[in-house]
Amino acid sequence: MKPFSTMPADVKENIRYILTDIDDTLTDEGRLRAEAYTALERLRENGFVVIPITGRPAGWCDQIARMWPVDGVVGENGAFYFRYDDTSKKMIRRYATEDELRAQHKVKLAELGELVVEKVPGCAISADQAYRETDIAIDFCEDVPALCAKDVHKIKEICTEAGTTAKISSIHVNAWFGQYDKLAMSARILKEEFNVELEQVREQVVYAGDSPNDAPIFGYFPNSVGVANVLEFESTIEHKPSWITEKRGGAGFAQIAHGLLSVK
């Protein structure tokens, strides 16, 4: 992981797309502060395509797509993308799975959530679960006292044994049925909404993140950037980002924006 401040000017000049995690990448201690929000706004005003890529629920993503200075959002770890069309005043929603299958999975995931809470004392169903359409989120440190790493991995193990795909974020273990992921849905939104093949623009993308569930995307993009708090997972993260900021969370994202805008 090289200091982001040393990214060459010609590499920065080539960047056109900003994909970013939200929790602990744009936020600090659960809050989206003015510095990070302004960074999103300045990037979009200067012609960058800006798309948050998050594990957060559909209900939140509807609001993000409508009201944030972004070009769309990928939510629930790749289950869908939402994009608000300012001209038609309509929300575009695209899902990885069909409506009927999502409804069936929702029942099974609710049962899985009850099992996890029973087996791992101290965890809880995430407070944002009511707004989710495709996954179960188990809180291990957002609104509950932080669990140890062993218990977090036990949550993931129970979910995996139930046949789900399970990922650990900085605050939740998210589990879902199906093989979709953030990277596949990122490729889909770029192709369907911007007529761009992701493989052809890999070097024009900055992906910003902070945790183990960002690892596959860190590994895919040559110019992935971790905000400084990614160092907390340095020993366990499978693929490390190419670059790292000096600052944590939203301040780190603002550093990325400032660096990219400095060569415009």
UniProtKB/TrEMBL annotation:
Keywords linked to the UniProt accession: Hydrolase
MF-aspect GO terms: magnesium ion binding; phosphatase activity
GO cellular component: cytosol
InterPro entries from the UniProt entry: HAD-like_sf (IPR036412), HAD-SF_hydro_IIB (IPR006379), HAD_sf (IPR023214)
NCBIfam families to which the protein is assigned, alphabetical: HAD-SF-IIB (TIGR01484)
Annotated PANTHER family: HAD SUPERFAMILY HYDROLASE-LIKE, TYPE 3, PHOSPHOSERINE PHOSPHATASE
Protein known as: HAD family hydrolase
Organism of this sequence: Halodesulfovibrio spirochaetisodalis
Species lineage: Bacteria, Pseudomonadati, Thermodesulfobacteriota, Desulfovibrionia, Desulfovibrionales
